[in-house]
Amino acid sequence: MLTKARDFLMKGDITHLIILAAIIFVIMPLSMDIFRLNLVGKYLTYAFVALGLVLCWGYGGVLSLGQGVFFGLGGYCMAMYLKLQASTPELTAIQSTPGIPDFMDWNQLTELPWFWEPFHSFAFTVLAVFIIPAIFAYIIGVAMFKRRVGGVYFAIITQAVAAILTILIIGQQGYTGGVNGITDLRTLNGWDIRTDEAKYVLYFINGLLLFGAIFASRYVVKSKLGRLLVAMREREDRVRFSGYDVSNFKIFIFCLAAAISAVGGAMFTLQVGFMSPSFVGIVPSIEMVIFCAVGGRLSILGAIYGTLIVNFAKTTFSESFPELWLFAMGALFIGVVMAFPNGIAGVYQSHISPWLAKKFGSTPKDEETPIMATKKHSVESNEAQVKEPSHAGN
Amino acid sequence: MRSKTLNPTSGVRRRTLLKSLLAIPAAVMLANANFANADMVNTTGLAVTDDTVTVGILHSVTGTMAISETGSVQAEKLAIKQINAMGGVLGRKIEYIQEDGASDWPTFAEKAKKLLVSDKVAAIMGCWTSASRKAVLPVMEQYNGMLFYPTFYEGLEQSPNVIYTGQEATQQILEGIDWASRVKGAKSFYLLGSDYIWPRTSNKIARKHIEKLGLKTVGEEYYPLGHTQFNSVINKIKLKKPDVVFISVVGGSNVAFYKQLKAAGIEMGKEKPLFLTISVTEDEILGIGGENIEGIYASMKYFQSLPNENNKKFVAAFKEEYGDDIVIGDVTQAAYLGPWIWKAAVEKAGSFDIDKIKETLPGIEITAAPEGYVKVHENHHLWSKTRIGHAKLDGQYDVVYESPELIEPNPFPAGYQ
Amino acid sequence: MFAEYSAAELTSIFAMQGFAGLILFSVFVLMALGLAIIFGQMGVINMAHGEFMILGAYVTYLTSNVFANYLPGIYEAYFFVAMIIAFFVTGALGAFVEWAMIRHLYKRPLDTLLATWGLSLIMQQLYRTIFGAREVGVVLPDWLMGSYQVTDMIEVPINGIFVMILTIVISTGVWLMMQKSRLGKQTRAVVQNRPMAAAVGIDTGRVDRLTFALGCGIAGIAGSAFTMVGSTGPTSGQLYIVDTFLVVVFGGATSLLGTIASAFTISQAQSTMEFFLSGSMAKVLTLLTVVIILMLRPEGLFSLKIRR
After folding, report:
1. Chains near A, with 3+ CB pairs < 8 A?
2. B57 vs A: CB within 8 A
3. CA distance to partner chain C, nearest, from residue B368 (Å)
4. Where mainly found (chain C) (predicted)?
5. Secondary structure tally for chain B: helices H, strands E
6. Higher model confidence: residue A373 or residue B15?
C-alpha cells in the first residue's frame, strides 16, 4: 500500500515540480519587471528557511523560533566576503585606514579583526555559509536533544538564542556594523551585483539553488531517514525502544535546516545588497515559521508557495492598507493553526486534488495519503506527551 | 563620489540652453508662472510635467518607528502645502508619493528604489534612523537621487546624494558640553546611552572633548535597546556623584529610565547632578510625561518655544493644520526644512536635474527657517545654531542658551576619531 | 574602584544595590507568575503575555483619566482601583481567549505558540488603532513618587517598595489559593492527573479557563504596576517577553517556588553584573548563562519530570 501510494505521489509530484519550475523560471521573469522580480528573489530566499522548517518542524517535530539566527549567519558570512571586496585600499582611500570596511573605520579600528581575514577567500566563504550555521545548530542540538529537551522548551530557548545574537551583533558595531548592518555591497569577484543583468542572473541562480534544496529535502524525506523522522515525530519512545538514537536524528535534521536557511541568507545578501541584524531576531524568525505554516508544514513545495503568497500579501496590503495588514497577519497565524493546520498544501490535497483527479479521469484517492494520515495522528499524540508524561505507554 | 549623467549628448545641448535661461534675473524667473516646458527643466526623465513635479515621502507609518516619524511626515506635507500655495517650484505644484518604510530597513531600500526607478521622483524626503538611511544610501547613489534626511545623527557620513537637515553629533555635543562646563561649572561627566551606533559614537566624541577641556569622565554605560530596568545604573550614578549625566538613551528605554530616576528620588530641578540629554525632544516628552523629566537640559538646534518670528508663524501654521495639541520637536522642524531647501536649490539651478541641484545646493540659505537662519555647507550638512533647553512641566522647553555663532558641521571631526 | 569611599558610604551603596536587585526580582516575579501558572497548568506558553500586561497598563491609564476628570478628590486612590479593574478586565479577556482559541489547541502546544503570537499582533494593532501609536503617559499619584530615606545615605524608591509589597501579596495570595481553596485543589488535581480528575467529577474545562484567566489577570496587575516604571505603548509588551519566558522556563514552572527561585537567580545575576559591567554585556552574559544552564539542566531548576 505504501509503495503504491508512493508511486502515485512520485507521478503527481513531478507535475507539481514542473509547475513550480515554470512559475519561478518562466512565468515570473516574463511577466514582471526587474524591480518586482528582485522582490520575488528576496521572497524566495525566505523560502529556504521555510523549507528548512518543513524538514525540522513538519517532519522532525522540532519547532525552532530562531531560524533567523542561521539565515543571518549565512547572510553575514556572504556580507563579510562582499564587504571586503568593496573595501580594497583603492576604493577606501579617503578613510583613515584604507583597506578595511567603512564602519570599522568610523569605529576607529585600525586593522581587520582576525575573524574577518579568512573571508577574503571565496572558497572559505562558501564553506562557511554551510558549516558555521551547521556547527552552531549542532552545538544547540547536542545540548538540547541529548537531554531530551523538545517542544516548547526548545522553542523558547531558540528565541533566547536569537535575542542574544541580536544584542551581540548590535553592540559590537566595530566588528559587525552594528544595528545598521553591513551595507553598500557592490561586487562579487569583480562582477557588479547591483546592475539589472546581475539581478536577473542572481534570481536564476537563487531559483536553481532553491530547487537543489527541494531535491535534497525530498531525498531526505523519501529515504529511510525520512520515514524514521516521521515515526519519531509521532511515537518518539517507540523509535527509541527500537534501538535508534532519536537525538541524533533530531540533531541531523536541525543542522540540515540550519544549513539550508543559511544558503537563503547568503542569497539574500547577494540580491538585496546588505545584511542587518533585523533578520536575526525573534520577530523575523517567527514570521518565517508562518510562511512554512501557511504553505503546509509537511509540504516541501507548499513552503515555497506559502512564502510567496504571504510576502506578496504583505507587500500589497502594507502599501494600501497598512493598518489592516497587521490584523490580517495576526489572523493568519491564528487561522493557520486552528482552521487549516496543514496549510495550503492541506487544502489542496483534501479538496482540489480529488476534484482534479475526477476531472482528468485518474483514479481518485479514496484514502488519504500516508502523510496526511500520520499528520492527523501526530498532532494529537506526541505533543500530548508534554502534558502527561506519566502516560508513556500511550 | 559618484555621479551619473544618463543622456550625455542631448544633455550638453540642453545644458547650454539652460545656461542661457539662468541669465534671466531670478526675480523674473520666480514671477513668471508660465515656465519653460518640462524638457528644459528636466533632462533626466524625472516625474516633471508642465504643471507638476513629484517628490517622494519615505517614512515609517507602521511599526516601532511610526511614533517618531509621524512628525516628519506632517512637517514635510505642511511645507509642500505652503510651497504650493506660493506657486510651487518653478511654477509647478508639488505632488508627493508617500511610501511606508514600515520600520524595516530593507523595505526602506526597496521603496526608495521604487520611488527613484519606477516613480522617478525628483527628490525624496525621508528616513529617520541611521539604519534606514544606511540602507537607502546605496540606492540613492546608484540611481542618483537626492534624499533630505532630518534626524540629528552621529555624522561620519557625507554623500553627494543626501542633504542632512538635522545636526550631526559634533554640533549638538561639543556646544552642549562647553555650555555645561562654562556656564554650569561642570567638572565630571557620566555618559549613559542605548547600545548602538549613535550613542556610542556620540559618547566617543563627548569623551574626547571632555578630555580636551581637562575634565573627567567618571563612567560610560550602554544598555540594550528596549531595556527597562535601570536601578543599577541609577545607583552607580548616585555612587559616582558626577556633575553632569550625559544621556543618549532612546526609545522605550527612555520612559522607563526617567520614571525610575524620579522614583529614586533624583530631582532634576536640583541640578546636582545636572542632566543633559541629546535624545529627548518635545515628541519624546509626550511619552515620558512632563512631570518625570521636568528640569532636564537638552542640547538641540530647535525647540518649539523658540521666540523668533519665523517660529511663531510656523508653530501657528502647524497647529492649524494638525491640531492644538501637537508638539514639534527638532527632527520635525528639520524635516520641514527639506522641501524648502530643495525648492531653493531647484530654482537657483533652474532645473530639477539632480546633477544641477548638486551644484547649487551648497550655499543655499534659508532665512525664514523656524530655527532662524541655516545655510547648506559643502558637506551637505547645515550651518546652524545650537541651543540648550530646560524642560518644563508642560513638556515644552525654556531656551536658556543659544550659541552666539552658527556652528559649522563637521561629520568627520579630526582629533575626535 | 571602591577606594574613595568610606565604610559607611560603601555599606549604603551595597544596600541600595541590594535593594535594586530586590526590586528587579519583584518585577520578574510579577511578570512571570501569571505565565508560570498557565504554563504549569496547561503546558501552554502565551506569547501574548506582554500584550495582556499592557492591557492592564492601558486600563490604568484610562482609570487615571476618569479619576482626574470626574473624581479629582480621591485621585490619590485611583491606583488601587485601577489595579483591581485591570485584573478583572484582563482576566475576562483571558477567559474569552481560552474559550475561543486555546482550548482547541491543548494537544498542540507548539501551535499554541503560533496562535498566541498571532493574537499578540492583533492586540498590538488594536492598541495602535484605539490609543494611537505614541506611548501614553500615566500620571502617578503623589504618594508613589520619590524615595524613602531609610538612613542618611540610603534611599529607596517608594514605588520599588510598592512593587515588592505587591509581589509578596500576590504570591501569597496565589499560594494560598492553590493550597487552601477548592479551586486550587482542583487545579492541582488536574495538573497531576487530568483523566483521573475528570473521572472524579472535576470540570477540567472550567478549571482550565479559570486558571488561564487568573494567569492573565495577574499579568494585568503586573502591567498596571509597571506603569510606574516603564512605558505604555502598543509595542511595549515586546520588551518583557524574552525575560519572562526565560524566567518561566528556567524555573521549571511546576511550582510557584520554581518561578520565584528562578526570578531570584536571574535578577540577582543581572543586577550584580550590571553593577560591575555595562548594561549590554550584563544582559548578554545573563542570557547566555541561563541558556547554558538550561542546556545542562533542561528541565529547569525545580521540576518533577523530564520534559519532552
Report:
1. B, C
2. no
3. 30
4. membrane
5. 15, 15
6. B15
